Amino acid sequence: MPLTPPPGVAVPTVLVTGAARRLGREIALALAQAGWRVAVHYRSSLDDATKTVADCDQLTRGAAAFYANLDDEMAVRGLLPTVVQAMGHVDAVVNSASTFEHDTNASFSFAAMEKHMRSNAGAAIVLAQALHTHITARGELPAGPPQGQLAPSGRSDPRSGGAWGRGVVVNLLDQKLWNQNPDFFSYTLSKAALEAANTMLALALSPLVRVVGVAPGLTLTSHLLSDAKFEALHKLSPLGRSSTAQDVASTVLFALQNQSITGTTLLVDGGQHLMRFERDFSLM
Fold it and tell me: Which one, of 178, 169, 166, 165, lies nearest residue 201 by Cα?
């Protein structure tokens, strides 16, 4: 059911990184279906980003595409202000973009670690900072009228549990953090750093910005897996199925809407984190 803002309140706007393709696109479409105006971030997939924008625009008008190289700190620091300038305001950031390149302890290098840390952890932290700065500048402090009443700005009081009172950051993680194996060494380190940052950011940015992790299991196939192999691996979980893109997207929407969640991670993996896997799915 699409969100309907109170009278005088703007449509909520979310920046989704890596929204041109795959899971980021599915998240963007689900949020647009729920009434969010989507800023579609992309790096190299302009044509795909343009299609995602058009599809989101059919659901909630006002979607737009924004380029940024998340390895570049200055580009990351400029991304959210650029979105704000173009779209007027931003209420949430979903950090879905991710570098995922194979290495092991034997092939580990500072360069590989830095590449993953920059895009997977550093960019998400900087965007959380930027959202907090933006929400602060809007003047939506938690002090205000009694619960359920509108603040002078026309937005609902942040304590009232409405969807428009606080900023929200959702960071996409990985069930691998709770079920580790030695594959994709630098990627896993970067996601572990981001999971730790969830706690620190939730403390540092409260009460204006909530920070929530969402950790999928095996969700989409890749060039490393045949369709048959993907289907077999997807069933390896206590529930007999791992996460679908729709499962993950609906959990992101839940995290955005639920005003009582911060500083924690929601695992959406059919219970795969409860099983022991000696290798990464793509190498099994």
Answer: 169
pLDDT band at 165 (very low <50, low <70, confident <90, very high): low
93-111: pLDDT as tens digits: 999 999 999 999 999 999 9
Query: Which tens digit of pLDDT belongs to each residue from 106-162?
Result: 999 999 999 999 999 999 999 999 999 999 998 854 433 333 333 333 333 333 333
Question: What are the domain boundaries of the chain?
Answer: 13-140+159-274
Helices 73-87, 123-137: inter-axial angle, 10-degree rounding: 40
Q: How far apart are CA 12 and CA 25, in angstroms?
A: 18
Containing 27, the helix (H) or strand (E) segment is helix 22-33
- Domain 13-140+159-274: which CATH number of 3.40.980.10, 2.30.30.140, 3.40.50.720, 3.30.70.3340: 3.40.50.720
Q: How far apart are CA 158 and CA 166, in angstroms?
A: 6
Contact by Cβ (8 Å): 73, 126: yes
How far apart CA 238 and CA 268 sit, in angstroms, is 12
In angstroms, rounded to a whole number, what is the distance separating the alpha carbons of residues 224 and 35? 35
* 20 in Cβ contact with 40 (< 8 Å): yes
State how far the Cα of 278 lies from the Cα of 103, in Å rounded to an integer: 15
Tokens 């979903």 belong to residue: 94
Q: Is 251 helix (H, G, I), strand (E, B) or coil?
A: helix
By CB neighbour count within 10 A (0-12 exposed, 13-18 middle, 19+ buried), where does 267 fall? buried
Q: The tokens of 255 are what?
A: 């995290």
What are the structure tokens assigned to 13, written together? Answer: 């706007």
Q: Compute the C-alpha angle 136/128/14, nearest 5°.
A: 85
Structural element, H or E, at residue 213: strand 209-216
Determine the Cα–Cα distance for residues 121 and 70; give it in Å rounded to an integer.
10
